[in-house]
């Protein structure tokens, strides 16, 4: 275990503090999932919610590696980010519906049909399922030849996403702009309504496929800027291409406004509904765990 953790920390360029977090919080979560799999809940579908930069991708990677290496669990680790629509498809949406849909992120900018087909194939225990990949550095879908290929029937399917598990808002809540982006670029509420309708009509119907829900809850939306900045710097450090879409600090400040509404809505409504809640402080350290049914 010590060797696996040490190698994981090095591989993902994490601080030594991750070891304590993993042992104290992520291993118990992995053990809970393993118990359910051993009881016959296979493939076990687990949805993970966490705002940008909260560490959900790292947590999922650790759980997948820990269970695969120590218990021979066959894990498929998915991110909602890998189901983003292509740059061309988003450009078409922006021209037909609203210019803000040119920017990836919100419900409506994912290939929800592909996500649905992928989840159903995995739920039915199919082998030979291909899972997509999105390259944020070039802001476009990777070639199909670069997609992952699931050889074996999975025991566990993880799907993490910043808005995954969040329910749509009441229409009255949409009428008030909550930041400068909404106020100046969505005055008629077209974008907000489209995003909300997409969430309710196409994302929520997939939630019942999931057996267990986990949330990494930020202290507030104010933490997102710093976390997202760290995330972008990490992406820049691992990207060799000069013609990429790595964002500056000012661009990040603008970019996160696309996510503010649903992030705040999720922080207000999801904690009561998940099975495993990890509350974070501004340094992304877990301060409390609440385990439900």
Q: What are its keywords?
A:
six-stranded mixed β-sheet; 11 helices; alpha/beta; 293 residues; two-stranded antiparallel sheet; Rossmann fold
What does it look like?
- The protein has a 6-stranded mixed beta sheet, with helices on one face. A two-stranded antiparallel sheet has the order 3-6. Strands 4-5 form a two-stranded antiparallel ribbon.
- Helices cover about 45% and strands about 15% of the residues.
- The chain is globular, with a radius of gyration of 19 Å.
- It contains 11 helices and 10 strands.
- The longest helix is centred in the first third of the chain and has 22 residues.
- The chain has a single domain, classed as 3-Layer(aba) Sandwich (Rossmann fold).
- The relative contact order is 0.17.
- The two termini are about 30 Å apart.
- With about 290 residues, it is of the alpha/beta class.
- Helix 2 crosses helix 3.
């Amino acid at each position: 275990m010590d060797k696996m953790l040490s190698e994981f920390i090095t591989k993902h360029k994490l601080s030594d503090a991750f070891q304590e977090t993993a042992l104290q919080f992520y291993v118990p979560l992995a053990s809970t999932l393993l118990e359910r799999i051993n009881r016959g809940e296979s493939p076990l579908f687990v949805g993970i919610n966490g705002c940008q930069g909260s560490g959900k991708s790292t947590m999922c990677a650790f759980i997948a590696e820990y269970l695969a290496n120590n218990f021979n669990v066959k894990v498929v680790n998915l991110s909602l980010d890998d189901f983003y629509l292509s740059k061309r498809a988003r450009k078409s949406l922006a021209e037909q519906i609203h210019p803000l849909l040119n920017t990836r992120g919100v419900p409506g900018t994912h290939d929800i049909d592909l996500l649905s087909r992928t989840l159903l194939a995995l739920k039915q225990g199919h082998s030979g399922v291909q899972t997509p990949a999105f390259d944020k550095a070039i802001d476009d879908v990777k070639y199909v030849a670069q997609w992952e290929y699931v050889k074996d029937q999975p025991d566990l399917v993880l799907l993490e996403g910043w808005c995954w598990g969040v329910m749509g808002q009441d229409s009255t809540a949409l009428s008030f702009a909550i930041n400068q982006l909404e106020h100046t670029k969505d005055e008629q509420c077209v974008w907000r309504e489209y995003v909300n309708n997409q969430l309710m009509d196409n994302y929520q119907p997939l939630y019942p496929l999931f057996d267990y829900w986990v949330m990494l809850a930020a202290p507030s939306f104010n933490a997102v800027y710093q976390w997202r900045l760290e995330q972008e710097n990490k992406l820049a450090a691992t990207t060799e291409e000069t013609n990429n879409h790595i964002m500056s600090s000012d661009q990040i400040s603008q970019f996160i406004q696309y996510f503010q509404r649903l992030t705040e809505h999720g922080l207000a409504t999801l904690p009561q509904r998940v099975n495993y809640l990890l509350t974070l402080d501004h340094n992304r350290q877990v301060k409390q765990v609440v385990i439900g049914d």
